[in-house]
Amino acid sequence: GITHTVGSLSTKPERDVLMQDFYVVESIFFPREGSNLTPAHHYNDFRFKTYAPVAFRYFRELFGIRPDDYLYSLCSEPLIELSNSGASGSLFYVSGDDEFIIKTVQHKEAEFLQKLLPGYYMNLNQNPRTLLPKFYGLYCVQAGGKNIRIVVMNNLLPRSVTMHLKYDLKGSTYKRRASPKERAKALPTFKDLDFLQDIPEGLFLDGDMHSALCRTLQRDCLV
């Protein structure tokens, strides 16, 4: 499905992103025996939906992601499932080359992301140092009466980077302490209350970096 939608985009001329592009949903049916538009495959029939394809093409280009590299990362090797699912029950996968994170999302989460796209677009153009996640694509596979929605994002924690200490900070203290089970892991993910306890003086940044970081965060909060 991703191969088809990215490939078909390459035949369409480059143009400015319009407001209606954020709300487009393209849908194509993939019968098992193939069709004039789709190849034959070994799975059951399925339908593949692509959300805001032109807008996400723009985002990928802005982030320096070439179509061939995107397809190679996602489609040349099986995805690797990560063991820790999110609190929402989402499943996480990483591409074989460690470049992308693929996350399953619920209908409301996908709908919310699509509504955010116009503001996200404006923020990327006005705030190039944004710390918001880099979204590369939003898709849905319909098969066997089920809808599986996935979002493709940048991988901030590649396996090649050695992690010494890891905190998942939400800006809240309610139930924000790592569980005993989590602490028993070789590389646990600590939370907000752990951070306040372990690093009570916080992080020290030089003045210019602190000011730039605060400006970026303030702009990101407007999306």
Q: Can you describe what's shown?
A:
- The protein has 223 residues and is of the alpha+beta class.
- The protein has helices spanning 2-9, 53-62, 67-75, 107-126, 180-183, 192-198, 207-220; strands at residues 25-30, 46-51, 80-81, 92-94, 100-105, 135-143, 146-154.
- It has a seven-stranded antiparallel sheet with strand order 1-2-6-7-5-4-3.
- α1 runs antiparallel to α3 (67-75).
- The longest helix has 20 residues, at 107-126.
- The protein starts with a helix and ends with a helix.
- This is PI51A kinase.
- Residues 1-223 form the PIPK domain.
Cross-sheet strand order for the largest sheet? 1-2-6-7-5-4-3
Instruction: Give the CA-based shape.
Output: globular
Task: Characterize the biggest β-sheet.
Answer: 7 strands, antiparallel
Distance between the first and last residues' Cα = 30 Å
CATH topology (level 3) name of the largest domain: Phosphatidylinositol Phosphate Kinase II Beta
